[in-house]
């Protein structure tokens, strides 16, 4: 082999290996708007719940018939301020999603629950969770359920359903209205009760 050819071949190998790009990490999966709203809801809602042990259930929430509730109240308002209801179509869409758990459909919600040490349990028995009742009539852990939210066509508002059940006669479920802030973050702004036991 001629020295010129050897030098050219070595140069080509060095140049080729130097020009190779370093492996790129896989692109981050973007979080869908419903999952962003669901994660923001769970984060804000957990702050307001009593200090108990919680279990997140992916079981469908209680089904109920009925139109858009008319009694929407400002979320955590000391004045219990009433606000107008969101569009009927948005609430109808949320009702259709009530059987779709945010804990099943949103990895970001699963990560948040894991971070807070809240286990995700599968379906409860017909008599509630497979737990023993404690003396005060409450289960040792409160069962929380959150549906996937329905998002308005313009992406500015969302409605979802959530419930918290601490015992056979200690629970309730509500619609929650969230609004996207100028920063892009979702904020709970109102709630309307659906059922109580």
What would you note in describing this structure?
The chain is an alpha+beta fold. The chain has five helices and nine strands; from the N terminus they run H-H-E-E-E-H-H-H-E-E-E-E-E-E. Strands 1, 2, 3, 4, 5, 6, 7, 8 and 9 form a nine-stranded mixed sheet that branches. The longest helix has 17 residues, at 3-19. The protein is globular and about 45 Å long. The model is unreliable at 8-19 and 25-29 (pLDDT under 50).
Task: Offer a few descriptive terms.
single chain; 197 residues; alpha+beta; 9-stranded mixed beta sheet; 5 helices
Mean pLDDT: 77
Which residues sit in consecutive blocks of at least 5 with pLDDT less than 50?
8-19, 25-29
Strand content: 25-35%
- The quaternary structure here is single chain
Shape: globular
- Major beta-sheet overview: 9 strands, mixed
Helix content: 25-40%
Number of strands: 9
- Reading the helices and strands in chain order gives HHEEEHHHEEEEEE
How are the elements arranged and paired?
Elements: H1 3-19, H2 33-48, E1 53-57, E2 72-74, E3 82-83, H3 88-96, H4 102-105, H5 107-115, E4 120-121, E5 141-146, E6 150-151, E7 157-167, E8 170-180, E9 186-196
Parallel strand pairs: 1-4, 1-5
Antiparallel strand pairs: 2-3, 2-9, 5-7, 6-7, 7-8, 8-9
Helix pairs in contact: 2-5
């Amino acid at each position: 082999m001629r020295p010129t050819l050897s030098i050219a071949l070595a140069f080509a190998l060095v140049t080729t290996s130097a020009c190779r790009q370093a492996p790129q990490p896989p692109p981050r999966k973007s979080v869908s708007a419903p999952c962003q709203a669901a994660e923001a809801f769970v984060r804000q809602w957990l702050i307001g719940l009593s200090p108990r042990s919680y279990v997140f259930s992916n079981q469908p929430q209680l089904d109920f018939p009925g139109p858009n509730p008319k009694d929407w109240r400002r979320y955590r308002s000391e004045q219990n301020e009433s606000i107008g209801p969101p569009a009927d179509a948005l609430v109808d869409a949320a009702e259709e999603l009530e059987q779709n758990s945010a804990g099943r459909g949103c990895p970001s919600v699963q990560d948040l629950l894991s971070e807070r040490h809240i286990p995700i349990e599968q379906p409860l028995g017909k008599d509630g969770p497979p737990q023993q009742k404690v003396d005060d009539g409450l289960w040792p852990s409160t069962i929380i359920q959150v549906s996937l939210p329905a998002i308005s066509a313009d992406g500015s508002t969302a409605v979802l359903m959530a419930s918290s059940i601490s015992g056979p006669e200690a629970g309730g479920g509500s619609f929650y209205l969230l609004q996207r802030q100028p920063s892009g973050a979702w904020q709970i702004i109102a709630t309307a009760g659906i059922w109580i036991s």
